[in-house]
Amino acid sequence: MKIWMLSTVVCLAAGARGMASREPVPPPPPVEAPEGYKWVLNQAYSDEFNGRKLDDEKWHNHYPGWKGRVPGLFVPESVQVDDGLLRIKIGLLDPPRGDDGEWWIACGAIQSKGQEAGYGYYETRMKASSLRTSSTFWLMNPRKDAEKAGKRTELDIQECIGDAQRWPDFKHQFRSNTHITFMNEEKVDGEYPVVKKGASYDIGSNVDEDFHTYGCWWVDAKTMHFYLDGEHVQTIEVSTEKDPSPFDRKMFINLVCEIYDWEVLPEKEQILDDSKNTTYYDYVRAYTLEKDDVK
Questions:
Q1: Predicted confidence (pLDDT) at residue 241 exceeds the cutoff of 90
Q2: Whether 38 contacts 121, CB under 8 Å
Q3: Topology of domain 2-291, per CATH?
Q4: Integer distance in angstroms from the first to the last C-alpha of the chain?
Q5: What is each CA distance from 202 to 169, 177, 248, in whole angstroms?
Q6: Which of 159, 186, 231, 290 is flagged as catalytic?
Q7: Which residues belong to the signal peptide in this entry (predicted)?
Q8: CA–CA separation, 255 vs 45, rounded Å?
Q9: DSSP state of 32
């Protein structure tokens, strides 16, 4: 009898620990699903960052095939997961790297290992750094697919700079953009033709002051609706003049903090200031629409 009671207690305790360790199911996106459909979490591109390290089954801790933009080098050391947050911290490279020491700023990026993100809803909750470096959330189609399709597609959901100097609007706007590079056309001045369409919305405060949720419902090959803190604030309708289905390629997800060659470089004193040098991502969530069989 005592053995049975002890076994029961142990089993109940283990079950309680198991229930407590389960992560809560994220809420559905702030978008009503079309009639007959429901939103389903796409686990391959979702992460609550609740562990003690980056989930290397889902993410690269760098940007494969791209080192960054001089003088900002992507290094895995800039990427950390702690206290329920993904942190991308800008730092100094000591010693600088490269033949001429041209890489002296440590930047960071993560990229999804899955590369087949399609139509659906994508969202992150983010607080930008207070540096003149980017804090971003975006999607792009893989290089091999771009070469095969003859076009590169890029969907920038949020692209901001906490201490923007050259274009100060980057400090306080929800800035979204689309880029289509037509690689099957002749280059002009050494570059392939690019079609862009963007949208921006004033957040009402600087992007480094607090967390905000930035979301996008990628509806179809030409339509994207953007959501700030759960409210629809802007829409991009991509031109179909050159391509009737411009955004029909599967893509991968990027969270990147980098140097822009058109922005004033951050000062070393700022880079060393831990109250300014980190972009925080609370989560990344992706959802797809599936038929709802419930009558």
A1: yes
A2: no
A3: Jelly Rolls (2.60.120)
A4: 49
A5: 8, 15, 29
A6: 159
A7: none
A8: 12
A9: P
Residue 272: CA count within 13 A, CB half-sphere = 7
Parallel, antiparallel, or unpaired: how do β-strands 72-74 and 103-112 relate?
A: parallel
Summarised one tens digit per residue, pLDDT across range 153-165 is 999 999 999 999 9
pLDDT at 295: 54
- Taking only Cα atoms into account, the Rg of the chain, rounded to an integer number of angstroms, comes to 21
- Closest residue by Cα to residue 219 from 27, 17, 37, 8: 37
**Token reading at 119:** 């139509």
Block residue for tokens 């975006």: 138
**Residues 133, 123, 155: CA angle, nearest 5 degrees:** 65
Q: How far is CA 211 from CA 118, 136, 236, 268, in A?
A: 26, 13, 24, 25
Q: Which entry of 35, 57, 154, 290 is annotated as an active-site residue?
A: 154
Residue 35 known to be catalytic: no
With CA atoms as reference, report the closest residue to 286 among 126, 46, 24. Answer: 46
Span 217-231, mean pLDDT?
A: 98
Question: Scanning the structure block, which residue is given the tokens 């690269």?
Answer: 60
Could you say which DSSP state residue 47 is in? B
Nearest to 174 by CA among 160, 164, 185: 160
283 has which bridge partners?
125
The predicted model scores a pTM of 0.91
Question: Using DSSP, how many helices (H) and how many strands (E) does the chain show?
Answer: 3, 18
Hey, what are 275's tokens?
């109250």
Q: Is 42 exposed, middle or buried (0-12, 13-18, 19+ CB in 10 A)?
A: middle
The Cα 182–Cα 63 span in angstroms is 23
